[in-house]
Amino acid sequence: MTSRKELGRGERVLPGVYRLRLPLPWPGVPHCNAWAVKAGDGFVLFDTGMHQQDSLANLERALAMCNLRLEEVRLVVCTHAHSDHCGQAATIVEKVGCELWMHPSHELMNRMVEDPDAVLARRLEVARQSGVPEEPLRRYAAERGTPESGIVGPIAPDRELVAGVTVATDLGDWVAYETPGHSPSHVCLFQPERRLLISGDHLLGRISLYFEFGYSPDPVGEFLSSLELVEGLDARLCLAGHGRTFTDVHAHIEGNRDLVAKHLDGVLKALDGNQPTAFEVVTLVHGDALSEQNAHWLLSQTLGYLTHLEAIGKVTRIDGETERWAA
Ligand SMILES: [Zn+2]
Ligand SMILES: [Zn+2]
Q1: Closest ligand to 204 CA?
Q2: Residues forming beta bridges with residue 174, ordered by sequence position
Q3: Residue 289: is it exposed, middle or buried by C-beta count within 10 angstroms (0-12/13-18/19+)?
Q4: What is the 204 CA–ligand 2 centroid distance (Å)?
Q5: What confidence tens digit (pLDDT) does each residue in 140-174 have?
Q6: In angstroms, what CA-CA distances link 241 with 21, 118, 245?
Q7: Which of 186, 225, 166, 34 is CA-nearest to residue 104?
């Protein structure tokens, strides 16, 4: 917790393109970006920031720093269904009466809003099956309670943001590319003449991997395919979901690939001469770094890697009340 209250900030990054830096309550991830791109008498808002106390005021503050007003939003487009990217969407579209475009795989988010207990129950079931001992699990469930979703309410997009959909702006059309992996609903938007990429959380300036496990067959494999697709676009400048813009897009793609390969290698090594549970893999790979705060995150990433290694035929899942893995 910082004592200084973070505020929304806005800056022009290119003529007609504005970065809106919005505060987040998460340790290690202090803000996210929304992007405003001029369109006719208003602008298209790409992503919205999370819903929390003062979040709308922070968005309006960031817009005001760019001489923009919330009333000028003509369309809201969300890169994916995570609270920091679509949390305020419902508020904004209701306030200004514009449309919301988003990928159809966003229902997971609605489930989280409508029935967070069921999502938590499912999480615990996966953890138990992965060999997490009962005691820390009970503690996790009790302390976590019903998590705050960061979403103002269920989302009902007016248009499905699938491959090939275009978003018109003063800088030209932006084309939607489906880029699952980080989240099954993830979409990047590419402006081909200027080679600009709104990359959401698919590509970030500071490489950090996250795969939403449990909602698609092989999130890590999907992420690697999405990297390949985006590499083919040959973007010149990335407008990412967190942090500053960056130009060395190719190097970032390579960096992501290298890190995935390194993690896969670490998981494979843990299986050497062993038939561990996923949780044992987590303790073998991450050892002292494992804490109650990051256990869920590390376990779901590890399950993602194991599932990918299974998909490419390098490991076998041994079914049982507790699942084990063999190389
Ligand atoms: Zn995300
Ligand atoms: Zn994000």
Answers
A1: 2
A2: 167
A3: exposed
A4: 9
A5: 777 765 556 788 888 889 999 999 999 999 999 99
A6: 9, 28, 9
A7: 186
Give the pLDDT confidence of 61-111 residue by residue, as tens digits: 999 999 999 999 999 999 999 999 999 999 999 999 999 999 999 887 787
State both tokens at 44.
Answer: 């298209």
Q: What is the DSSP letter of 294?
A: T
- Tell me the CA–centroid distance for residue 274 and ligand 2, in Å: 36
Model pLDDT, residue 28: 84
- Spatial neighbors of 153 by CB under 8 A, at least 6 apart, are 90, 113
In angstroms, rounded to a whole number, what is the distance separating the alpha carbons of residues 196 and 235?
6
* Mean pLDDT of the 21-28 span: 91
**C-alpha 323 – ligand 2 centre gap (Å):** 31
Ligand with the closest atom to the CA of 212: 1
What is the pLDDT at residue 1? 44
Concatenating the DSSP letter of every residue in 50-99 gives: ---TTHHHHHHHHHHTTT--GGGEEEEE-SSSSHHHHTTHHHHHHHH--E
Kindly state the tokens that stand for 199. 């990359």
Helix (H, G, I), strand (E, B) or coil at 122: helix
Q: Name the residue among 325, 327, 274, 323 with its Cα closest to residue 126.
A: 323
Give the residue-averaged pLDDT of 215-225: 96
Q: In this structure, which amino acid lies at residue 99?
A: E
Residue with structure tokens 């590499």?
231
pLDDT single digits (tens) 105-146: 988 778 777 888 888 888 889 999 999 988 888 887 777 655
Reported for 39-42, long-range contacts at CB under 8 A and 24+ positions apart, including other chains, are 39/74, 39/75, 39/168, 39/169, 39/170, 40/74, 40/170, 41/72, 41/74, 42/72, 42/73, 42/74
